[in-house]
Amino acid sequence: MRFPLKIKHIDLMETVTGLEAEKGIEGFYLVFWIHNIPFGRLEVSTKRLPMSGVDVRLNALWVIMPALRQMAPAEMLDTWPFNSYDLSQRDLNFAFREIAAMLPRRRPPDRSQRVSVVICTRNRTDEIRKCLTSLMRQSQPPHEIIVVDNAPQSNATHDILGQFPRVRYVMEPRPGLDWARNAGVRNSRGDIIAFTDDDVTVHEDWIARISESFQDPKVTAVTGLVLPEQLRTFSQVYFERYWPLGKGFITRRFSPAFLAGIRHGVAPVWEIGAGANMAFRQQVFIKFGEFDERLDVGAAGCSGDSEFWYRILAGGGYCLYNPAAVVFHRHRVEMKALRRQIYGYMKGHVTALFIQYEKFGNRGNLCWLLGGLPKYYLQRLGRCLWCKSSHKDRLLVYEILGYMAGFLFYFYHTKIKG
Predict the structure, then answer these.
(1) Contact residues for 260 (Cβ-Cβ < 8 A; gap 6+)
(2) Phi then psi for 257, rounded to 5 degrees?
(3) Which residues make Cβ contacts (< 8 Å) with residue 217, sequence separation at least 6?
């Protein structure tokens, strides 16, 4: 697995320079944009370099095609005179002008919709400063920004907020991400509540794209694209490859039928998005309750977001994944931190499946817990024993330990609750 990778954001409407091998990197992670909208990504190893600007744009044309097919009739794209690898700069300029003309015009902002931003943090002053700095540069400023300081060990976060006079400070003494999220909900005054993490910076159009998504009255919750901020270490590249927070560049709509169509299996609600980039109508929390405090950091480990999306869909709500709403996440730099993260992911995943069964009685959750997951891990263990393991299996033991810990955590807390 190649690392480090240099992330390069390329606007395809501008002149694209070629790529040359650089000392100390093993390749490029290219993200292709058109008018501030991301359309695709491509990893290029140093073995393919040098690559001319024309070749970069030509590769981009093929990479972004799945996202383009959402916007243009297939007949039009299939008959384009660009289905060739032998194109000139002039041909490519014309192609991308045609693509830009197909893009839907951005709707004017709905000023009647007040957007509150909630950021939960704990003892990470450098990270919260970067996150807030990016929020100060929004093309559509939020109505309010709330920082929830979760069981802080000092006044450092409170003191830093003096540099950001528009930001409100809330202290939640009980440790746990969902305790903090719920404190943010209770203190928000907006019609829409958007959540991001302290280890994230947001794109300048993040609020505008979220607000735009809620102009559809059927949409209850919105998620967006999470891109890596850096890919310098093995742990960062590993996480992006095997546990990515981003769900691709194609808009997806999730209706209650998403659950209804999987009555005898587990609904992959984690495909809806990531907690680092999500937003809800304020009345959702009145109708469906708050985040389950048994989940996420400080408790089971994660899945408070996906369990809440499951609840929304089960209650007749709609979720929208909008890749134009972009944030940039700083993945764990060290393997030690990544091991804890993967362990927590599986612990939270198991706990969330039990909670979903507890609330809605869908046996598919139990079937996956007691049948699907054990079978999946036995198959991977078998490959390892036959010396056919992959890079993905490097943290297999932490996945399995997290799986087992989820059972213990859920039944222990159920006993206490009972």
Answers:
(1) none
(2) -65, -20
(3) none
Q: Is 252 helix (H, G, I), strand (E, B) or coil?
A: strand
Between CA 122 and CA 152 the distance in angstroms is 6
Per-residue pLDDT of 228-259, as tens digits, reads: 999 999 999 999 999 999 999 999 999 999 98
The structure tokens 């440790």 sit at 175
**Helices 396-417 and 373-385 meet at what angle, rounded to 10?**
150
Q: What is the DSSP annotation of 346-357?
A: HHHHHHHHHHHH
The answer to whether the beta carbons of residues 410 and 350 sit under 8 Å apart is yes
> CA-CA distance, 68 to 82, in Å (whole number)?
14
pLDDT one-digit tens code per residue, 156-194:
999 999 899 889 999 999 999 999 999 999 999 999 999
Which of helix, strand or coil describes residue 52? coil
| Residue 5: φ, ψ to 5° | -115, 140
**Beta strands per DSSP E along 154-299:** 167-172, 192-197, 200-202, 221-228, 252-254, 277-281
